[in-house]
Design goal:
Layout lengths: L1 E2 L4 E7 L7 H14 L2 E4 L5 E7 H11 L5 E2 L9 E2 L13 H11 L12 E4 L13 E6 L2 E6 L11 E7 L1 H18 L20
Parallel strand pairs: 6-7, 7-8
Antiparallel strand pairs: 1-2, 2-4, 2-5, 3-4, 8-9, 9-10
Length: 206
């Protein structure tokens, strides 16, 4: 939950792999009309209800919770941003949706993740999800997954450094765990991986 202005707030519903279940879509539509809300599909592939009056926030959360939705909040492991993958794209090599769910299952108990930490998965080298421009990027190739680290957008964008080539899914998860643990150990506040990759103890050298 983030403050939008003094009299209203907003609520972000997390959508793993950007999928919006029909029942959640129907309930969001109902709530948007009932409480006169604006619906925003964020670039992080989540759904945000905007313009909520403070006194309505609890009621809205209570109406959504029976559907099993999860809400954005501090410390939660980031949902990977993904492309549509080989199921619906002719260029697709792998299924980012499936890998995303495996990553989320593996890290579901991981809490206190620093803000701004991001993961992206691309189903082919076209990298529509921006795997090369995020903290940890996973890009499918014909030889397996390449892993990038330290990318970012913003006023001074930076392309990530490729640290692993041709990994299978288990290797991807192991590398993410190593990087997340390093990030946790090296910063007590929000910090992008781009500021840590030149640390002398960074586990993957240039």
């Amino acid at each position: 939950m983030e403050t939008q202005e003094k009299t209203t707030t907003r609520l972000t519903i997390l959508l793993p792999a950007g999928r919006l279940p029909h029942e959640v879509m129907a309930k969001v539509n109902e709530l948007a009309h009932k409480y006169n809300l604006e619906v925003y599909l964020s670039t992080a592939q989540n759904l945000r209800l905007m313009g909520i009056r403070e006194e309505d926030l609890g009621r809205i959360r209570n109406e959504l919770q029976p559907l099993g939705v999860d809400f954005k909040g501090p410390g939660k492991f980031p949902l990977p941003r993904v492309c549509i993958g080989n199921r619906d794209c002719n260029l697709g090599i792998a299924d980012p949706h499936r890998l995303s769910l495996k990553i989320l299952e593996h890290f579901k108990a991981h809490t206190k993740v620093k803000p701004k930490f991001k993961i992206a998965i691309s189903g082919c080298p076209a990298s529509c999800s921006g795997a090369g421009l995020t903290d940890i990027g996973i890009m499918a190739t014909r030889s397996g997954f390449d892993i990038y680290v330290g990318g970012k957008m913003g006023p001074v964008p930076k392309t990530g450094r490729r640290i692993v080539r041709g990994a299978d899914e288990d290797k991807v998860i192991a590398v993410i765990e190593e990087l997340v643990n390093f990030h946790d150990a090296r910063t007590d506040k929000k910090n992008r991986m781009s500021k840590l990759i030149d640390d002398p103890d960074f586990p993957y050298k240039a």
